[in-house]
Amino acid sequence: MKHSIHEEMNPSEKTINFIKQIAYSYRAIKINGKTEVYCLN
After folding, report:
1. What is the pTM for the complete model shown?
2. Do residues 41 and 26 lie in contact, with contact meaning Cβ atoms separated by under 8 Å?
3. Tens of pLDDT along 9-26?
4. In a 10 Å sphere around its CB, with 0-12 CB exposed, 13-18 middle and 19+ buried, how is residue 23 labelled?
5. Maximum CA pair distance of the chain?
């Protein structure tokens, strides 16, 4: 059985939502050349 690489790399809807939650909750800002990470929650 042969699978397309494109099909194998499609994440599920649950995975996409999880990634979006992380991306929304955490932000990075560069101050004086140093990257700082902070949480919005």
Report:
1. 0.47
2. no
3. 778 999 999 988 888 787
4. exposed
5. 54
